[in-house]
Amino acid sequence: MRKVRLRDAVWLPWLVTPCLLAAGLLAWHGFVTAWNISPFILPAPRPVLEEWAALLSSRRAWSHTAMTFAGAVAGFLLAAVLGVATGILLSLSPTLERLSRPFIVAFQVLPKVALIPLFVVWMGFGLGPKILTSAILPFYPIMMNTLLGIRSVPEGLRDLMVSFDAGRFQLLRRLEFPHALPYIVTGLEVGIVLALVGTVVAEFVSGSSGLGYLLVSRINSYETAQMFAIVLQLCLLGLVLYAGVAGLRRLLVPRFTPPRSD
Amino acid sequence: MSGTGVASSGGRPPLIALTGVGKIFDAGAGAAPALLPSSLSIADGEFVVFLGPSGCGKTTLLRMISGLLEPTCGTIAIAGSPLWDGGRCRKELRSRLGLVFQDAPLLPWLTVEENVRLPLDLRGRSPRAERQSGARAMLALVGAAGIGSRMPHEISGGMRQRVAIARALSYDPDVLLMDEPFAALDAISREALNLELQTLWLATRKTVVLVTHSMAEAAFLADRIVLFSPGPGRIDTVVEVPFPRPRSRGLTYSPEFQQMVRDLHERLAGLMEQP
């Protein structure tokens, strides 16, 4: 095991980072007081933190957080299943991949949030548009990473499996999928963040619940400090979701070491 | 010397018979043949080495015998049956061939023992316990006992190659096909593995076809050396190696051995100078 230097293990994360944070808050406070900024434009850190504390102790705010959480997770799971399945399907047939490439590119360059009003027309103001939006955003990176992971299997390993009479399904299960797993997990890590983006934007447009809805509902009343507090809450939610997927890597790719680069 | 070398070996029936086997990649305008039609017979239990410079078609021929690459022309017969059948390699013959690749590819997410067991697991013909004990026995046979639970990245290059040989032997093939197996190793490990390979071969009497570009390795290991020449790739000559077995390291210092390596060297250098 490599020795970790004290400076890297303790000094940087546990001392320097909090100090930088404190300095930032202080600068923010100083800026707001010195220039006498209106709290409607930029509230001081103290009221923001107070609002966040209020949010954290409010059951209603937690139920909104839970709604956003549920929307992001449901969409993400949908995207994970469909993305991995589509990636595998495209890897099986180069012809299919070539045929579908223009459509995939067209879909990828389309700003997908523009579809939310359509989803609302089709599915009403419920959970439907929210889950669908949070699914279509991460779909592409998850699918693409699955495909790239399978494509990057070295020819030598394919030859090896062929020489052992491996069938198509065995090739997928014993070689391609395990080889692609680290790529897929990277896709999932990108995807979970996009799923949260999709959920929040859908809540802006169509929601009657969730943190996105809560944020937009504060516009008319100019409760800027509360808006900041909701952004902080979203940041917390994003961290939890990302940590969940990062934990998945440890679970799914325990013994993996990167292949030699030759 | 003619472009095709035909050689038979002392009356024994050939285990591998190549008749007019050739390969052209991307058959189209201006495509150069990788291997001109070549014929060769390899007897059961023989140790044959394919020797030649890069681009002489020796690896191409080995891949065709391995069932990984379809010949453009000619037939490859294993124990009398054609290996290729309508563009497909016949499975029942493929399981008689054990392949050892150049860089000893092991699946990095499996333990050493699981890697050795992989061909048995994929074919799934024997009970699990039998496969496990078989894999351990093979590891012991190649001098890699006790590393079964390690991961591939934890073992040395020489050990990797031993594991790859154990894996190829795990399903008891008749033929061992080895593509520059020790090319990536340092000279000392390479010498040690050459000695071990000879011991293994004397113990198991598998038929071995080994590709190399090392003249000393060829002269040390082979019963017969098949010399390839480039541009386009073809079999040039077949050289009988007379040294008795078991061959020791001492042999490599003898004048006869040195003379053989020098002859091979001259022959190959002469081939390279031809237009």
From TrEMBL, chain A:
Record keywords: Cell membrane included? Answer: yes
Domain (ABC transmembrane type-1): give its ranges.
65-243
Topology relative to the membrane, per the entry?
A: Multi-pass membrane protein
Keywords, in A-Z order:
Cell membrane, Membrane, Transmembrane, Transmembrane helix, Transport
Coiled-coil region(s) at which residues?
Answer: none
Cell membrane recorded as keyword: yes
Identify its protein family.
Belongs to the binding-protein-dependent transport system permease family.
Q: What is this protein called?
A: ABC transporter permease
Taxonomic lineage from the root: Bacteria, Pseudomonadati, Pseudomonadota, Alphaproteobacteria, Rhodospirillales
TrEMBL record, chain B:
PROSITE patterns in the cross-refs: ABC_TRANSPORTER_1, ABC_TRANSPORTER_2
Keyword hit for Iron-sulfur = no
Q: Which GO terms describe its molecular function?
A: ATP binding; ATP hydrolysis activity
Question: Keyword set for this entry?
Answer: ATP-binding, Nucleotide-binding, Transport
Question: Which Pfam families does the entry link to?
Answer: ABC_tran
Q: Which domain of life is it from?
A: Bacteria
Query: In this protein, which residues make up the domain named ABC transporter?
Result: 16-255
**Family matches, as Gene3D superfamilies:** P-loop containing nucleotide triphosphate hydrolases
Record InterPro entries:
AAA+_ATPase (IPR003593), ABC_transporter-like_ATP-bd (IPR003439), ABC_transporter-like_CS (IPR017871), ABC_transporter_ATP-bind (IPR050166), P-loop_NTPase (IPR027417)
Q: Which family does it belong to?
A: Belongs to the ABC transporter superfamily.
Protein name as catalogued: ABC transporter ATP-binding protein
